Amino acid sequence: MFGTKLAVAPMMDWTDRHCRFFHRQLTRHALLYTEMVVADAVVHGDRDRLLGFDQTEHPVALQLGGSDPAKLALAATVGARFSYDEINLNVGCPSDRVQSGTFGACLMKVPDLVAECVAAMKGAVSIPVTVKCRIGVDEQDVEEALDRLADGVFAAGADALWVHARKAWLQGLSPKENRDIPPLDYPRVYRLKQRLQSRFIGINGGVQTLGEAEAHLSAGVDGVMLGRAAYHNPGLLAEADTRLYGEEARLPDWEAVVHAMAEHAARHIENGGRLVHVTRHMTGLFHGLPGARRWRQVLSTEAARPGAGPEVLRRAFAEVRLDEPAAAA
């Protein structure tokens, strides 16, 4: 499991089951994450709606939010029953929602509780349990804060630690500002890996290209997590298996990708869904290729109309001119 070199980050309102199915058409190997699901919702809510996924999404990890070890252990057990490949604990999200619930990035302030949560989850499931965190929050010293959290979760049995290389400012910055304003500190994550050489340490935050991912791997970390770059320019994932996993180089079969997504959309519509639930994740697919603007326009306008069907995807794809040199779209 932790031969993984590339992951697509958990992103609220973005990495739902349709997004993950789409990303899996582009890369066979990258680890895909769910949106954060609150442990209370798993315990008390509609589990099929919250946790259901297509088996072609593997490898796929469930990210949980919470701070109650018993509830997290139960939620992890449910996730394992749904056949997720990994359970991840969110210790990095700075949103108002998690602050009001005292979890996410707030947990950086209580590393002993994080370790208790990890120990409870590890005791409940046999699949890997991992943590995603920040380098610190607010006025914390990032050297002390990250070391203490890392040491605690690994002592509790964590199988990997993904580190978003920014502080989170819970006071004074909005969740959106927390994605950009605190400066990135990649060397801090490298130092953690140098100290914990036998542990899986992955890096996250601001990575825009596979070239940057390769540079981080060369610097010594074990994995790289792409966030908004993978979402807004998903076509870059089509090169990941060749560049990071050693597969034979080949041109992407864009027609096969669109066909698979049209069939997926048809199934979703038959079950009462709407086309836009699927296509909203796909508008950036042909970034930089001739016809990309028309692709976006067709999907953005026609897919949202009542009764829109998968033929919209095929009509949009007809606007993409794959036989012409790439140019600004």
UniProtKB/TrEMBL annotation:
Domain DUS-like FMN-binding, chain residue ranges per copy: 8-307
Catalytic activity: 5,6-dihydrouridine(20a) in tRNA + NAD(+) = uridine(20a) in tRNA + NADH + H(+); 5,6-dihydrouridine(20) in tRNA + NADP(+) = uridine(20) in tRNA + NADPH + H(+); 5,6-dihydrouridine(20) in tRNA + NAD(+) = uridine(20) in tRNA + NADH + H(+); 5,6-dihydrouridine(20a) in tRNA + NADP(+) = uridine(20a) in tRNA + NADPH + H(+)
Cofactor list: FMN
Site (Interacts with tRNA) residue list: 90, 176, 179, 293, 296
InterPro entries: Aldolase_TIM, DUS-like_FMN-bd, DUS_fam, DusA, tRNA_hU_synthase_CS
Residues the record marks as active site: 93 (proton donor)
EC number: 1.3.1.91
Protein purpose: Catalyzes the synthesis of 5,6-dihydrouridine (D), a modified base found in the D-loop of most tRNAs, via the reduction of the C5-C6 double bond in target uridines. Specifically modifies U20 and U20a in tRNAs.
Name by which UniProt lists this protein: tRNA-dihydrouridine(20/20a) synthase
The organism of origin for this protein: Neoaquamicrobium microcysteis
